[in-house]
Design brief:
Blueprint: H1 5-11, H2 17-29, E1 33-37, E2 43-47, H3 56-79
Antiparallel strand pairs: 1-2
Helix pairs in contact: 2-3
C-alpha cells in the first residue's frame, strides 16, 4: 500500500535518529526478541517493530535493526 508524501510528513516526527538507535540496540542487546526453536533444531529470532508499518519511525527502526545485523555479519565473517 503506497501512501502519499503528505501522509509520511504527518508521521515523520523528528528526531528520527532515536528510532534508528532503538532498532540498532534491539538487535545488539536482543531486547524484545524471542528465540524459537524449529523442529529441525535450528533457532530463529522473532522481533517486532514497535511502530506502525506506514510511518517513518518504523522505517528508521528497521534501518537501525538492519544496520546492526549487517555489522554483526561482517564481524562474524572476519572472525571465521
Amino acid at each position: 500500500m503506497v501512501r502519499n508524501k503528505r501522509h509520511y510528513e504527518k508521521y515523520s516526527i523528528p528526531p528520527l535518529n532515536i528510532q534508528f538507535e532503538s532498532g540498532f540496540e534491539t538487535f545488539k542487546e536482543k531486547k524484545q526478541q524471542w528465540i524459537k526453536k524449529l523442529s529441525t533444531g535450528k533457532k530463529i529470532i522473532i522481533t517486532s517493530n514497535p511502530y506502525p508499518y506506514y510511518t517513518m519511525q518504523a522505517k528508521e527502526w528497521q534501518r537501525g535493526y538492519n544496520s546492526a545485523y549487517f555489522e554483526n555479519l561482517n564481524e562474524l565473517r572476519t572472525r571465521g
